[in-house]
Amino acid sequence: MSAGTALIVGASRSLGLGLATEYAHRGWDVIGTVRGDRRTGLHDLADASDGRVTVESLDMTRPEEIAALRERLAERTLDLLFVNAGIARGDIPVGEVPTEMFVEVMVTNALSPMRVVESFRSLVTPTGTIGVMSSRQGSLSLNTLGGQDVYRASKSALNQLMRSYAARYADAAHTLLLMCPGHVRTELGGPGAPLTIDQSIPGVADTIDRHSGEPGLKYLNHQDQTVPW
Hints:
alpha/beta; 37% helix
């Protein structure tokens, strides 16, 4: 029997693919999303999974695609909904950031994940988990060095939006998690980051699983430590 069903949004590569792989190895049924119809590592994972991993197409910056996927999955029940999103467009002082770039990062990193959460929350079991990939850089109190202005702002906005979401659905029993994966060696984290995906993601999954069934919102890292707001 499956350990549960997870929908992982943004699972074509990097941290999202790592999380999909981790949950598949833990015996879960995994639905992962990719943008467009190009072949990705998630397709390779699905091919080797004996049907336990399936691939769906979603560009979550397009509301009509969120609605279409919600309709396709209307009969599914989710134990875990996890939204992985993160783009950065360079370390540019905010006064020099073009408006189009600011909007793109905010829509991708903050608005779109919350649209997914709002759309799919009713598919999550009453005591299931809803998580989004945040970052240490979303912490206001830990920002002592500056830099990556717009990326930081987008993750802080995501955190704030999740707090509003938690307040709006305070009577729900869902576990709500803002997850910080650590500084990971990805395209976003850079080649000098201290952690590999294989070092980060098992801790992310352990933390998610450890808090299953605990209602309310937590901001945690891959070592199950609280990240200050």
